[in-house]
Amino acid sequence: MRSPLRPLVAFLAVALSIFGGLHAYLWIRLVRDVALPAPWHRIATIALALLAISGPIMLFASRQLPERIARMLSTAAFSWMGVGFLLVVLLASFDVLRLILAAGIWSFGQESAFDASRRLFLSRVMAGTAGAAGAALGAVALRNGLGDIEVREVPIQLARLPRELSGLTIVQLTDLHIGSTAGGAFVQQIIEKTQALRPDIVCITGDLVDGSVERLGPLVAPLATLRSRYGTFFITGNHEYYSGADAWLAELSRIGIRTLRNERVSIGDAASFDLAGVDDWMANIPGHGPNLARALAGRATDRELVLLAHQPKQIHEAAQMGVGLQLSGHTHGGQIAPFGALVALTQPFIAGHHHVGSTQIYVSCGTGTWGPPMRLGAPAELTKLVLVAG
User: Fold this and answer.
1) How confident is the model at residue 95 (pLDDT cuts 50, 70, 90)?
2) Is the Cβ–Cβ distance between 35 and 72 less than 8 Å?
3) Sorting pLDDT into bands at 50, 70 and 90, what band is 52?
4) 189 Cβ partners below 8 Å, 6+ apart?
5) HSE value, Cβ hemisphere, 13 Å, CA-based, for 85
6) Identity of the highest mean pLDDT range in 55-59, 63-67, 229-233
7) Residues 225-279: pLDDT tens digits?
8) What are the tens digits of pLDDT across the range 113-160?
């Protein structure tokens, strides 16, 4: 039997390799190439080495320390992760410009114009500029990530929706990641904003937590106070499978949140539509995994169908099976630009409202953050979807 921890261990191994490589690049550009004098060379080298392992270490340590202390340390470690990413992007962009400049100089036979002293000067200018710009962008991203969450209203026209239900509202919450850098105040803010919208349905589309029920149950418990006409529904995301998915499914059911595991329910009274939910694409324990065919078995095809699926890549099967609307998260909209370009390599859509044939999909940028509590170019959102008959 495959251990549910194996994907997490594999993820951490890959993460450590990537973080190590990126910090080595930062050391080359910010320490070696600018010829820092002693003792600053040694201090900067040690600091970058410690920062390289701070994020992965906090993933483990945060589960052992008291919750409030762990959240403070995680915020610090992961904030550096975000700033480091911005520095790498800026320095890499400058390297591309330097290569273009060097190619131009060499093409005109002016190799002497790019001698050692000029290279050192250029390296120092680029490092200083990248450092200042990275710090400024990091501050903006941190303010965005820790600031107020915007409510985004999205009208969705559905051909099979009964006219009696036109105007029905779904509040989508996704990727809250309670427990990493988000605590009780964050949960309370989400509850208050959701209740102010007076939703007909609340849908939590995965990655609710980063930690065990034993540790985070008290933080999640207030979600039981969410009130809507037809209730609150939940599907798993990949992070639930790092945090004890079965235990969380049992806990959420216990506090009155309906979990949808490859199944569907009818929403409405005399006039109604189907709401279905599937397990996360990356479910990794026996008895789990997305099974849309099972969720839709026996469904009347003239009924409207809204599908909750954590990852946007579920859309291709959903389109083949006549789903009207899929609600997803997972991508965080890239969270910190230009990271969305990498996310696009694995997901068909990063954020927003799209069509695949007659099937629509809305991908939320996410209500919380994972890793760095930062956002740049992808604001956190609490989504109010207004279903319109048509």
Assistant:
1) very high
2) no
3) confident
4) 149
5) 23
6) 229-233
7) 999 999 999 999 999 999 999 999 999 999 999 999 999 999 999 999 999 999 9
8) 566 788 888 889 999 999 999 999 999 999 999 999 999 999 999 999
With a CB cutoff of 8 Å and minimum separation 6, the contacts of 319 are 356, 357, 358, 359
pLDDT for position 14? 76
Q: Which residue has the tokens 């279903």?
A: 387
Are the beta carbons of 388 and 157 closer than 8 angstroms? yes
For CATH 3.60.21.10, list the domain ranges present in the chain: 150-389
**Residue 290 tokens, joined:** 């997305």
Domain 150-389 has CATH 3.60.21.10: yes
Residue of 29, 163, 10, 44 lying closest to 90 (CA atoms): 29
Task: Annotate 169-203 with DSSP letters as a single string.
Answer: EEEEE----BTTTB-HHHHHHHHHHHHHT--SEEE
Q: Return the pLDDT at 7.
A: 60
Q: Which residues contact 269 (CB under 8 A, 6 or more apart)?
A: none
- Angle, CA of 23, 25 and 30, to the nearest 5°: 90
Query: What is the C-alpha to C-alpha distance for residues 128 and 121, in angstroms, rounded to an integer?
Result: 11
> Which has the closest alpha carbon to 239: 364, 335, 370, 381?
370
Average the pLDDT over 284-293 and give the result. Answer: 93
Q: What is the dihedral of CA 136, 140, 142, 145, to 10 degrees?
A: -160
Handedness of CA 18, 182, 234, 256 (dihedral sign): positive
Please, what is the end-to-end C-alpha distance for the chain in angstroms? 49
DSSP state of 376: B
Question: The tokens of 310 are what?
Answer: 């954590």
What does the pLDDT average to over 43-72?
A: 80
Q: Locate 87 and state its tokens.
A: 């520095």
Type of residue numbered 322: G
Question: Predicted confidence band at 63 (pLDDT cuts at 50, 70, 90)?
Answer: low
Amino acid at site 65: L
H or E stretch covering 246 = helix 245-254
Q: Two tokens at 27?
A: 């050391």
